Amino acid sequence: MNVQLLTPERRDTDLNELPFFDTTTVYGLAPFDERTLAFFDTFSKKLLADRSVNRLPEIAALAFWIRRANLLQIQKENSHLFGQAHFSLSPLGRVFHVCPANVDTMFIYSLAVSVLMGNKNLLRISARMEAPQITFLFDTLNELLGLAEFALFRDYIHIITYPHNDAISTAISGRCNARVIWGGDSTIAAFRDFKPAPRTRDIVFADRVSLLCIDCNAFNELDAKGRENFARLFFNDAYTFDQKGCSSPQSVFLLGDEAAYETCVTEMVSLLSGAIAGRYDTDIASIASLKLNRMVDDTLDRTIDHKWGDNYVTFAALRTQDATEAALPHSCGGGYFYTRRLDSVDGLLPFVDNKLQTVSYFGLDDTALDALVSLSRGEGIDRIVPLGHALDFNYIWDGYNLLEALSRKIYLER
Fold first, then answer.
1. Separation of alpha carbons 324 and 322, rounded Å
2. E strand residue ranges, 142-223
3. Whole-number pLDDT of residue 285
4. Measuring CA to CA, how many Å separate 307 from each of 203, 263, 278, 338, 414?
């Protein structure tokens, strides 16, 4: 069974020849091993040394996340896992990652968390991930793995790509200790047909939807500099991956009375349209056609009754009689946002279900944030973050602590 190997080097190879499947080798890396910290810190420095990273915020964010200082902070936050009298933390073993195509840096985050715990890793990425920044990541990673000081990691990092192939996916699934499946509902369903070993641990990331909650008065009171910053943060959250990231907002809920709402939505759309026009690097004609088709469908389906905006940003007002519906509509992307006015955060309740992942916010006070936390109990919200941080990766994701999920606790009694 041949696959295309991308890391630690580029070549075609027989799947069974990968060291990933060698069960006779020891696991030489302990969780948060100093050698692992040095490896990712060097990776970070090499990424940041390239001046083109200044134009690639997603790569810059990745580089900052894998630097030593951040990884040590993560270890500190998880001190309850280390130095315990009755258990020792151990790598889980061989981890197979099925990586998403919609957020092109996610595979490195998934890899980093798993290697930090001392696991050996096989990552499958989409052949469609051919953007220059992805090539840059692979070239940098392979350069590191070619250095003598990091040769150890050639047994821990293997990235492959192959077309949909049930035999290959089944073979891998039956020989790994964990599968990390990022591809959404359809990918999860497909891989559940590829029977894993009885003790294989599945960590799955289903289709999710996210929203932004804004206090109208807080926006209306912004000065020119504040509005410029707001537009920058909004763009980073919503447009970096064309709203395709599960944590990118697809709906915008505005808190305030009717007058504040009308002022807020009108001025916000005008602000965002002007700011985004100069930054959004895409085929705007194709995006305009996509959004027009969605708007027609939403109007015929009586989902929306009004809209603001243009080809760069569209706010489509959800019909008020739909307020009791317990599902957020899915945007077509490209700057198409559903919106509604609410009197308070409690008005989000009908839309909170197990599909709602991230609520980003702007201008909310502590009382409103506490109300959001209350709404998250049970089958609710997994992340609550300020505007501009929706796409920030964290080792706590979709309710998992990935460090714990990708490790074992070895009980010890002396």
1. 6
2. 157-161, 178-181, 201-204, 209-215
3. 75
4. 39, 14, 22, 9, 68
Contacts of 279 (CB under 8 A, 6+ apart): 235, 239
Name the burial class of residue 66, with classes exposed (0-12), middle (13-18) and buried (19+) by CB atoms within 10 angstroms of its CB. buried
Rounded to 5 degrees, φ, ψ at 123 are -115, 130
Q: Give domain 2-206+398-411's CATH architecture.
A: 3-Layer(aba) Sandwich (3.40)
**8 A C-beta contact, residue 103 and residue 390:** no
Strand order in the sheet with 120-124: 11-14, 2-7, 157-161, 120-124, 94-98, 178-181, 201-204
CATH class for the region spanning 209-386: alpha beta
DSSP 3-state assignment of 352? coil
Taking the model in full, what pTM does it have? 0.92
Range 188-194, long-range pairs (CB < 8 A, 24+ positions): 191/98, 193/166, 194/166, 194/169, 194/170
**CA–CA dist 75, 44 (Å, integer):** 18
Domain segments of the chain as ranges = 2-206+398-411, 209-386
Asked if 2-206+398-411 and 209-386 have one fold, the answer is no
Ramachandran angles phi, psi of 387, nearest 5°: -50, 135
* pLDDT tops 90 at residue 180: yes
| For the chain, counts of helices (H) and of strands (E) | 13, 18
Q: Which residues contact 6 (CB under 8 A, 6 or more apart)?
A: 125, 138, 159, 160, 161
7-42 residue pLDDT tens: 999 999 999 999 999 888 889 999 999 999 999 999
- Give the N- to C-terminal CA distance of the chain in Å, as an integer: 47
Give the list of residues 6+ apart from residue 164 with CB closer than 8 angstroms, or none. Answer: none
- Residue from 365, 21, 13 nearest 177 by CA: 21
Residue linked to tokens 């990425």: 125
pLDDT tens profile 71-95: 999 999 999 998 788 898 999 999 9
Per-residue pLDDT averaged across 359-373, rounded?
97
